[in-house]
Input
Amino acid sequence: DGGITQSPKYLFRKEGQNVTLSCEQNLNHDAMYWYRQDPGQGLRLIYYSQIVNDFQKGDIAEGYSVSREKKESFPLTVTSAQKNPTAFYLCASSIRQGSSQPQHFGDGTRLSIL
Amino acid sequence: AQSVTQLDSHVSVSEGTPVLLRCNYSSSYSPSLFWYVQHPNKGLQLLLKYTSAATLVKGINGFEAEFKKSETSFHLTKPSAHMSDAAEYFCVVSDPEGNEKLTFGTGTRLTIIP
Output
């Protein structure tokens, strides 16, 4: 079955620690996205990538970093510079970036501070 | 700039009665519009999308939405609610004349009363 796999499902971060969230897709999609979800705020775009070895900042990129070395993988690192990392993180992909393209979502990673 | 407003943060209906979730959008051009559903601790699943074809769009699980340009609305409806419909619903807009990124509403939580 094609889809998006996010791991781990739950993650805890200590003060001053960087943590990396994994996102893998086997849909052969070119575009991938990372969103942050906070209660009552909908989804906000952190980073997106239209093609391998290229990525762009979204609306709330500060304190986060990404890489896109392979088409199927788009890991997100939450750095110690992100002072309020507690949230639900969602990875998504689409065939290509475009206004009419629906995005497919993984089941998310819930990050909390220890 | 594009925006989307979900008029109700919480809707409760009895099982077997109609569902109406309201969404208004703002867009500088002819937008693409989507409805997604999210069950607890899960990712978002596409219910339906509008991309300038028929104004009445049918989706999965008996849901449909009507695009009304004059009212800048894209309300989601279902004739008869089922217990499994209890979830969070997101209205999403994408403006092809803008940056083609998705803008999410803040969500409507649907509760089904047995």
Observations:
- The CA atoms of residues 37 and 47 of chain B lie 7 Å apart.
- The interface with chain A takes residues 9, 31-32, 34, 36, 41-46, 49, 51, 90, 94-96, 100-102, 104-107 of chain B (CB under 8 Å).
- Chain B is about 0% helix and 55% strand.
- The radius of gyration of chain B is 14 Å.
